[in-house]
Amino acid sequence: MEFRKLPPVQEQIMKCVRCGKCRSVCPVFDEIRNETAAPRGHVFMVQMLRDGQVNPRQEVYDRLGNCLLCETCSVNCPSGINVHELNAAARSYIYEQNPSIGKELIFDTMWTKPGLLRTSTKIMSGLQKLGLQSFARNTGLTRMLPGDLPRAEKIMSSIPSQPARNRLRKINRARGEKKYTVGYFLGCGTDILNPNVALATVDVLTRNGCDVLIPQDMKCCGLPHIANGKMDTARLLAIHNIKIFNSYKLDYIISDCASCTSALSRKNMEFLLGGLKIEDEAFEFSDKVMDLTRFLVEVIDIKLPVVNKDDENIRVTYHDPCHLANAQGIKEQPRELLKRIPGVDFVEMADANRCCGGSGTYSLTHYDLSMKILDRKMDNVMVTGADKIATCCPSCSMQLRHGISRHNYKGEVIHPVELVSQSYPKTLPAK
Ligand code: SF4
Ligand code: SF4
Question: By three-state DSSP, how is residue 315 classified?
Answer without folding.
Answer: strand
